[in-house]
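Batch job 17 of 40 flagged for manual review because the log was empty.
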Amino acid sequence: MDFNQIKTVFETLRLTPPSKLTLLNGAEFTLRHYPPTPPDVDTLILNIDSAEMLAQVKFVLLAGYADSHKVSAVGMAGVTVTSLGEVGGVGLSYPISLFVPSLGEGTSFEAFAEIVAHLRAPDGCPWDKEQTHQTLRKHLLEESYETLSAMDADDVEGMREEFGDLLLQIVLNSYIAYQDAEFNFTGVTKGIYDKIVRRHPHVFGDLELDGVDGVLQNWEKLKEKERKGNKEDKGILDGVASALPALNQAQEYQDRAARVGFDWPEIEDVLDKVREEIEEVKTAENAEQVKEELGDLFFVLVNLARWRDVDAEAALREANQKFKRRFAHIEKNAKAQGRNLSDMTLEEMDALWDESKKLGI
């Protein structure tokens, strides 16, 4: 880096060089897709020598900064202060340097990891200091379901918040593992980084695959190869979490089996199997047989959902919520009439149910 160049940039900006500064060269953004700089530190990008390079720099920065974020383009013609979204839309004389002020405290992963570690420090939170992987398990499960609820509702603000709550669980568990001399978050990150690269040779290597089906088939081949390299003799389905909800688990089992060719040839075969299982439920002779046949029916219905590209778990959750809304309509009307639900006839409740459907509830 040319430190005289850096000094000149800040003199032009009439700013004192900050105590913390990330220095980057514009060419470093050529193959980037995400900003290579912590957003809670000021960043100076030097030697942006063309409109094309600036467009790439801007594209990468927008993955981490708002398009309204103010930046300064510094060149021979002076300083142009504009928003990140608009930079490049005005006449600039290249080469330029781009000064990107920080987003402020608490916007980098490192800052977040610091406050989580502080919670576990001697001067931290008494509750957090007592937690273990096992005591946090229920919180991870709860946060996962709350995240799914926000996703099901297409609640953008809710998703932003719930993803943060999930991230807290991951970082907190990782720091507990570090304190217990098991692993640290760097190991977590490195492990998933290597796995993504290894399982995407069509992106990070020279393998050519045909569409999504080709990707999934190759994915299963790679995992099979990994399993052979492990000392434990694990099968294709052993990697599916036993704690998954039953519908999720069934669909994942079927997805994985289908990737290696164990699947119905046509959807009509699945529909025939649904009809067959319904008949077997009808002819079941005792409670144990009914339970078994209903299980088979649920399983094949999940297969039908998979064939129709439907998430079976999400479909049932939505059906549950629809039932809840429509039943609430019945309760509301019963209350308005000064009646108890138990005093209403089935016909009366059915009429209110049909009314809720007409109202789009």
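Reviewer: the log was empty due to a logging misconfiguration, but the result itself is present. The CA atoms of residues 26 and 344 lie 73 Å apart. Unflagging and moving on to job 18.
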